[in-house]
Write a structure and sequence with these properties.
This protein has helices at residues 4-14, 57-60, 69-79, 90-102, 115-130, 170-173, 212-223, 242-247, 273-276, 295-307, 310-333, 359-364, 367-379, 400-417, and strands at 36-40, 43-46, 51-54, 108-112, 134-138, 159-160, 176-179, 191-196, 226-231, 253-256, 267-271, 342-343, 346-347, 382-383. The chain is α/β, with parallel strands linked by helices. The chain folds into two domains: 4-63 and 309-417, Aspartate Aminotransferase, domain 1 (Alpha-Beta Complex); 69-307, Type I PLP-dependent aspartate aminotransferase-like (Major domain) (Aspartate Aminotransferase, domain 2). The strands form three sheets. Strands 4-11-10-9-8-5-7-6 form an eight-stranded mixed beta sheet, sandwiched between helices. It has a four-stranded mixed beta sheet with strand order 1-2-3-14. The radius of gyration is 21 Å and the shape is globular. Mean pLDDT is 95; it is low at 153-160. It binds pyridoxal-5'-phosphate. Pyridoxal-5'-phosphate (PLP) binds at residues 114-116, 119, 142-144, 197, 202, 230, 232-233, 257, 267.
């Protein structure tokens, strides 16, 4: 049997911060992460043999729950035929067709390995298509870690060219404009694209205000700029057509990830055929990838999409709504102010009196209280995201009785911190 503390000590000596992605560290909640030994359905087991009901679900990559048999079988069978060829395969065509069928704005699709690649290339493509450089993004929206999109997420007012990370030259973000979420910005005629999470899920969960997405569409049309929806979280999660179907706004380009890979490294971007045709080898905008459209990842993606029908989405949304209402009730009964926004199957938890509508109000929520709630829940065997700026991802493998148990334990956790 392993030991979480011992492993974290060893990890920290050889891996910066002990983790391969900073969100896995317990930086904003304190303590150190549990090391996962295995997972199945709604559960993960750590190396000490402790079981948790998992609401992280690979940050949304597992919508069917962990180790779903259909996905495992698809991957196992694909692996027997070789793991990568560097030549096209039939499953890439099938997956691109399956994406286009569900997300009609994606007239053409290219598969990549990560959401970061998808957004980075979508922005390059928008710049190539318009011959313009400027990019508008929204504070608190995360679009992966490409230089140009790591501009400050922290400012409530329009901020021009402030790098959000050391090592990002000012020149890389000189054309990135950061504006507040849920307010339609002025889009000038030198803007190549506006990139947005149509439901923001990386500053906690923040739904779009009525008219916000429509307003972006109009502003982009007026200026001749492209509208990019970063649906890396919302794609195939809030419904088979993503947030663009839910809100009835058609972007020029979409970025997809997480769910579409079924827990394997796969993401995609797609959009208007006339724009997508500007990509190499047919067009002048370069993009490539040794492992893109990987045979194991496409097998997993196809298995996941095949398992997601309208009934599945109805069940996910219904359960999230119930869980959201229960959490609101039990935490409020404990005397704590809480907001539990729910969009389709996504939930957020903000310890805040007022609804959260943008990054400033998200940061104004009580992060220390979230940290204490997180640890109370973890001690009771419920794994929430280890940061107040992330969403919860209940899966199809979270049975109703486990959600009820989560709410009961949340009542005890809330009383303990009140
Ligand atoms: C996770 C995420 C990304 C980055 O995807 P990676 O696969 O981690 O590179 C981009 N955009 C959004 C909205 C995300 O949630």
């Amino acid at each position: 049997m392993g030991d979480n503390s011992e492993l974290f000590k060893r990890a920290s000596e050889v891996i910066p911060g002990g983790v391969d992605s900073p969100v896995r560290a317990f930086g904003s909640v304190g303590g150190h992460p549990y090391f996962v030994a295995r997972a199945e359905g709604c559960y993960v087991w750590d190396v000490e043999g402790r079981r948790y009901v998992d609401y992280v679900q690979s940050w949304g990559a597992s919508i069917l729950g962990h180790a779903d048999r259909r996905v495992i079988e698809a991957v196992r069978s694909a692996a027997g035929d070789g793991t990568s060829y560097g030549a096209p395969t039939e499953r890439e065509v099938l997956l691109a067709e399956a994406i286009r069928e569900r997300v009609p704005s994606c007239q053409k699709v290219r598969l990549v390995n990560s959401g970061t690649e998808a957004t980075m290339t979508a922005v390059r493509l928008a710049r190539g298509a318009t011959g313009r450089d400027r990019v508008i993004k929204f504070a608190g929206c995360y679009h992966g870690h490409a230089d140009a999109l790591l501009a400050a997420g922290g400012s409530g007012i329009a901020t021009l060219g402030l790098p959000g990370s050391a090592g990002v030259p000012a020149s890389a973000v000189a054309d990135t404009v950061v504006v507040p979420y849920n307010v339609v910005p002025d889009v000038a005629e030198d803007v190549a694209c506006v990139i947005v999470e149509p439901v923001a899920a990386n500053m906690g969960l923040v739904p779009p205000a009525p008219g916000f997405l429509e307003g972006l569409r109009d502003a982009c049309d007026q200026a001749g700029a492209l509208l990019i929806f970063d649906e890396v979280i919302t794609g195939f999660r809030v419904g088979s057509g993503g947030a663009q179907a839910m809100f009835g706004v058609r972007p020029d380009l979409s970025c997809l990830g997480k769910v579409i890979g079924g827990g394997l490294p796969l993401a995609a971007f797609g959009g208007r055929a006339d724009v997508m045709d500007l990509l190499a080898p047919d067009g002048p905008v370069y993009q490539a990838g040794t492992l893109s459209g990987n045979p194991l990842a496409t097998a997993a993606g196809l298995a996941v999409l095949a398992a997601l029908d309208d009934g599945a989405y109805r069940m996910l949304a219904g359960r999230a709504e119930e869980l959201g209402a229960w959490l609101t009730d039990v935490i409020t009964e404990a005397g704590l102010a809480v907001q539990v926004p729910v969009v389709g199957p996504l939930l957020g938890v903000f310890f805040s009196e007022a609804p959260v509508t943008d990054y400033d109000s998200a940061k104004a929520a009580d992060g220390d209280r979230y940290a204490r709630f997180f640890h109370q829940m973890l001690d009771r065997g419920i794994a929430l995201p280890p940061s107040p700026f992330e969403a919860l991802f209940p899966s199809l493998a979270h049975p109703k009785d486990e959600l009820e148990r989560t709410a009961d334990l949340a009542a005890a956790a809330a009383r303990a911190i009140a």
